[in-house]
Amino acid sequence: MIGVRYDRWHAFAQAIALALGVNLWISLVLAPGLVVGAYSSQAASVPLALATLLLPLPLLLFGLKTRNETVLLFAFPSALLVPIALSPSIASQQLYGPVRMAIVAIGLVAFLAGASTLTSFREPPAPKSRRPLRSSLDPISPRWRRRNRLYAMLAVLSLVYPLALLYHINFDKSGALALGENYSGKVATFTTLLNVLAVATWLIMLARFFIAPLEGHRRGDKLLQRELSAMRARAERQRPRLVFYLCGLIALVLMAFWFVWRR
Asked: Who contacts 40 (Cβ-Cβ below 8 Å, separation ≥6)?
């Protein structure tokens, strides 16, 4: 029965992730490309444009089939940028207003969240017996409440930071005027380049300042980790500690004293 529920949940999660991925592909690549004519017969290289347009779909299907984190969270989003790199007009400012940018951003976040949930979920084996833990009935300690607030703050900042960068690049009038004055005729190309650099900067910041602290919290307290490491090292030595020999010696001395005293 548990296996049947898991199979149904897995199929449902795959369908949701597929719908979110296709929605992202349509809103980010297909629809803007059709508007600017990036895939029409007047394009410079129609076969190459169509190949780059369809490239993300096999990656999406393969990632969903194998539940591969690298494919879903890195390869598929990266493949969506290939058509934009070949035709920067797909990401022109005339196509992306604040509302449409927000919709695309929400779709990207929803896909990443859905793909992360799909790839991280594993059905555990059925337990032989169940017993509620006493600690589960206790209220949450202040330390864990502070940690939960920290997790929420890092999650919000990881969304606000890239959105602020993208908004400044694409919708700030002073930035658009500066690009028009210095790179006349190449505004779309440089805007796309700045967007790619902003995303790359966000990924580096995310790995260095957001994921790294969360990883440290997930692994537990440093003091506890040191104690567990010391216990593991002692177990690997496979010989008693000095305290064992001292206790044995004391026991022998006491036994000898008791034997002499009894006589």
From this structure: 46
